[in-house]
């Protein structure tokens, strides 16, 4: 008789060797796998030519039950892109500057033991993936996934102009320097956009961000209605008007969204206040943008070059993420 197949669950780890303490991570993962009676873990390093998509595909083919994405937002995004629709869960060991998905899902950052424990013992939470088709100036097309946000304009320029050395030294605060470096390039982005197939509308904005989640580094809540599992993408356009335009935007994001919305009384104050037109919102499952001139584009905090048009849509509940049991809903 043929011998029975090994049915033990199997963990795979896709790690960024620049950002991860591999020896420490291996020690914890191998010990957790032994304690949980899982199969011997699989290990895959990202490289300059493979941000994680190809090795994650290999992990799936080799029978991985869960894939740990250990690294920054780029590694997490690449692993998620490869896991899309596979039914294989992703766990996150945040080791980057922004750790955007971890922040939005309240996953632990800086606690390696807890992150590994969630990978083996957490609950599976399905979330949406944002999808994007980028058209370059030469008409080449590229399709990618994103977990948190995609953006055109000032935020993409800021990411491009942020020093890698400074990010290693001071973390997400380095983006302040990136903003300062982007000010000389500050000008409105002129574009046409369409939501869910409606007629095109014209817009002139300094930044347009499309979000699957709503929180930025530093606890800033850009899109208060964005949820990672609602089948909807949210769009925020920053349109500063007059002398106090940027001050109004800061007040909207930091004070109104970040403070007032956390209490019943604060939400009543928002309802009674005049809406800030310097931040404009839209939402839908399918968003299309065409810019007058190619603009810098970013996905989950990584620069993705110049785009002349961007088509984004939501793939509902296409990714399973391991979360703590207390936060599974």
Automatic annotation (TrEMBL):
A GO molecular function held by the record: ATP binding
Cofactor(s) needed by this chain: Mg(2+)
Family (UniProt): Belongs to the diacylglycerol/lipid kinase family.
Protein's name according to its UniProt entry: Diacylglycerol kinase family enzyme
Pfam families to which the protein is assigned, alphabetical: DAGK_cat, YegS_C
UniProt keyword Hydrolase, yes or no: no
GO terms under biological process: phospholipid biosynthetic process
Domain DAGKc: 6-138
GO cellular component: plasma membrane
Keywords: ATP-binding, Kinase, Lipid biosynthesis, Lipid metabolism, Nucleotide-binding, Phospholipid biosynthesis, Phospholipid metabolism, Transferase
């Amino acid at each position: 008789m043929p011998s029975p197949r090994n049915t033990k669950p199997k963990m795979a780890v896709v790690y960024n060797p620049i950002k991860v303490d591999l020896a420490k991570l291996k020690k914890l993962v191998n010990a957790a796998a032994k304690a949980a009676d899982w199969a011997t873990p699989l290990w895959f390093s990202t490289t300059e030519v493979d941000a994680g998509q190809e090795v994650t595909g290999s992990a799936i083919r080799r029978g991985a039950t869960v894939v740990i994405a250990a690294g920054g937002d780029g590694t997490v995004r690449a692993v998620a892109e490869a896991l899309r629709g596979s039914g294989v869960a992703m766990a996150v060991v945040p080791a980057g500057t922004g750790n955007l998905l971890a922040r939005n899902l309240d996953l632990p950052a800086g606690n390696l033991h807890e992150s590994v424990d969630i990978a083996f013992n957490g609950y599976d939470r399905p979330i949406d993936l944002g999808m994007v088709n980028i058209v370059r100036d030469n008409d080449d097309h590229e399709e990618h996934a994103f977990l948190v946000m995609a953006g055109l304009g000032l935020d993409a320029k800021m990411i491009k102009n942020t020093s890698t050395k400074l990010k290693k030294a001071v973390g997400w605060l380095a983006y302040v320097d990136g903003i300062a470096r982007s000010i000389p390039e500050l000008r409105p982005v002129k574009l046409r956009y369409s939501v869910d197939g409606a007629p095109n509308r014209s817009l002139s904005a300094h930044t347009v961000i499309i979000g699957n989640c709503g929180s930025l580094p530093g606890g800033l809540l850009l899109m208060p209605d964005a949820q990672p599992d609602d089948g909807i993408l949210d769009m925020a356009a920053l349109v500063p008007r007059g002398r106090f335009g940027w001050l109004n935007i800061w007040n909207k994001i930091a004070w109104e969204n970040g403070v007032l919305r956390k209490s019943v009384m604060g939400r009543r104050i928002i309802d009674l206040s005049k809406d800030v037109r310097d931040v404009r919102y839209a939402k839908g499952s399918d968003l299309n943008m065409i810019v007058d001139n190619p603009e810098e584009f970013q996905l989950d905090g990584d620069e993705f070059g110049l785009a002349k048009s961007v088509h984004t849509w939501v793939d509902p509940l296409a990714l399973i993420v391991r979360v703590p049991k207390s936060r599974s809903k």
